Amino acid sequence: MPEAASVPSPPRAAIGDSEFDRDTVVTRREPGVYDIDLSAGWTIINAVNGGYLLAVLGRALADTLPHPDPFTISAHYLTASQPGPAVVRTETVRTGRTLSTGQASLLQYDDEGNEVERIRVLASYGDLAALPDDVRTTAAPPAMPPMEQCFGPDDSPAPVPGSSAITDRLMLKLDPATLGWALGAPSGKGEMRAWFGLADGRDADPLSLLLAVDALPPTAFEIGLSGWVPTVELTVHVRHRPAPGPLRVSITTRNLAGGFLEEDAEVWDSADRLVAQSRQLARVRLG
Amino acid sequence: MPEAASVPSPPRAAIGDSEFDRDTVVTRREPGVYDIDLSAGWTIINAVNGGYLLAVLGRALADTLPHPDPFTISAHYLTASQPGPAVVRTETVRTGRTLSTGQASLLQYDDEGNEVERIRVLASYGDLAALPDDVRTTAAPPAMPPMEQCFGPDDSPAPVPGSSAITDRLMLKLDPATLGWALGAPSGKGEMRAWFGLADGRDADPLSLLLAVDALPPTAFEIGLSGWVPTVELTVHVRHRPAPGPLRVSITTRNLAGGFLEEDAEVWDSADRLVAQSRQLARVRLG
């Protein structure tokens, strides 16, 4: 049989022109009011991913505030979002020389067309490019095998049940040491680590870091719990513009108790910078 | 000389009747509006302590919301508070069966009597007493010497300059391993650990945990930096009602870069429970 002609890879998407950008773009209806059709492409087990939603809110706030980059953003998740029409309402809380603070709400519509609040956010924005270059980080990147020795959803023998369109949007390669759950043998340790990128090749930027901290499988899976682990609250610190290339995301849970757990995420870029840190509080169903 | 008659110790203050309670009480003026005179007793180097302010906001939200305890509370610090008159304005964002979410602002008055916002907060409240007893915490209490081998401000040969009335309100005994800064020999490690309580003996409760996470000297001192380290944002998770007796607070900084640092605090009670976790983003002056 003749060899199949090799198909050239599609060009890597660029920041500003990619799936992530198209699916997080908000249209300003009037000052402080932005419309969006939430994409069905970022769902995990039928729920719209919380990090994708945070990026949508982050984009609206970047338009509202005089500073471009989220430095610290705290989100309280109120009701479950659905793909479809939504509105983001923003408010400037305070503007300063190097930092500004804003508030934002993501709302959708009930059957009568009334607005129902999904998420409320407080965030302080600055300019990452204006920060001094001083780096005294004592944290170290996670010990992880090279990407070629890690595994993504397409390598998995047991697909996660339910619609998980987000896996088609991501380049996700999990550390085998945190993959036991997918093979019926969870480690019992609250850890999840992966190489992370966007499937269309778009490099990371401060807004996509908001997605990255919430885009891995739950640490609860490795602890041996199944089912949904909804986020109650998520705070992300964005500390540096990420370098081009894949990210490493390392998540740890140390305090599973009383039906709640925390997930601490660190995001490291290809230059070994700790570009983002986050902590979320999530609910678990025990037993 | 005759022996001095021993003076009996004053009775330990009770939760609800203590310096902390009196200085955080808010008076409801009307639904969602609370007045308070911010005490000068909780200042550190002339700044009103951020944890004390968070406890004030937390008390107002506990009155507004149908659930009694802060589960996760995120505060963005906008302008510096001063002792004196202030108002807290609260809003119910959503009420649910086990969790409710609220928003609150602390405001003071400028020379013309206009309100100036000091802090804005989002918080989700629940009922700690209603949580199941399941504890699978893998974190361990910090290794610290017993309290008798730790040191408080009165033991220090070099008092911290500036008015620090808060030190009279607290029982603070620092781990000698994190005290080098007070002797001109900072360790270079971003760590601060202390036994913590209230000077009048009041036991801890969920609201005083909001104070505890922000009441130690800055880790920046041990890194060798001096000067003010103002909090930009602080998120606290309260995970369990603390047992009576002293707390252990352990704070770590691992990402000092670009003029900012994070402080991660863990609060352990006398029953070795991890009762609170927090992370704040703070600004540093480098060099």
UniProtKB/TrEMBL annotation, chains A, B:
Superkingdom assignment: Bacteria
Stretches assigned to the Acyl-CoA thioesterase-like C-terminal domain: 158-284
Matching SUPFAM superfamilies: Thioesterase/thiol ester dehydrase-isomerase
Family annotation (Gene3D superfamilies): Acyl-CoA thioesterase, double hotdog domain
The Acyl-CoA thioesterase-like N-terminal HotDog domain, residue ranges: 39-124
Protein name, entry field: TesB-like acyl-CoA thioesterase 3
Native source species: Streptomyces bungoensis
